[in-house]
Specification:
The protein is an alpha+beta fold. The chain has five helices and six strands; from the N terminus they run αααβββαβββα. The C terminus is likely disordered.
Length: 208
């Protein structure tokens, strides 16, 4: 891979991603958690007959739909490629929604597209972008709120994968009472140092 195909190194830094994305954590957390809950709301009669992959796909579809309707179009653009929905930001991130396990591992499909994302290769539209996942973790207790994280996979320019917890507004504002707009990221809510994920096949049996 030539240097022209690598995303700018700044995009692959955890601290830079946190500053760029934190202003939208409230909207993102609500969209992901409510999209996750839509599955039980809409398919309560079918839950017992759905396969694990079906449940995971339906949850993702509803999360993506919520994100479409929640994220401001001036800061996020929707890109449809090969049946996958991405959300692009002006700062250079390409976001895709996925399920995570309790160790923040992502269920990777061994397709060319998945390998490109994992390697953080150049986006298909020819722009240098950094792929990051917006993932959820099934709650330990059914009916509770799932955890939400941004995860950057280990790949080109990323020696170790990193993750950033997306906190609900109440938690995010515990140490920050200043009202900030999208152009004023909060400096006080640092990303937690969580277990660094490694990509491997998801062998969990839980629905989601």
């Amino acid at each position: 891979m030539t240097s022209s195909n690598k995303p700018p190194s700044k995009l692959l830094k955890k601290s830079h991603a946190a500053r760029c994305l934190r202003p939208f954590f409230g909207l993102i957390h609500e969209a992901v958690t409510e999209g996750y809950r839509d599955y039980e709301r809409l398919y309560s009669e079918q839950v017992r007959v759905h396969r694990t992959n079906t449940t995971r796909s339906l949850r993702r579809d509803h999360i993506v739909d919520r994100l479409r309707n929640s994220l401001p179009s001036e800061f996020f653009s929707v890109v449809e490629t090969d049946g996958t929905t991405y959300f692009d930001t002006p700062s250079g991130y390409r976001i895709v929604s996925r399920k995570l396990n309790s160790s923040l591992n992502i269920a990777q499909n061994y397709t060319a597209l998945a390998k490109n994302i994992q390697a953080n290769k150049q986006a298909q539209n020819g722009e240098n972008r950094a792929y990051i996942y917006l993932g959820y973790v099934d709650p330990a207790v059914p009916g509770e709120i799932p955890e939400v994280h941004f995860v950057c996979p280990k790949g080109i320019g990323v020696r170790e994968a990193w993750s950033i917890p997306v906190l609900p507004p109440a938690d995010a504002k515990k140490n920050d009472n200043i009202v900030r707009g999208p152009d004023q990221p909060s400096p006080s809510q640092d990303a937690k140092n969580l277990v660094r994920p490694k990509h491997k096949k998801d062998t969990t049996r839980k629905n989601g």
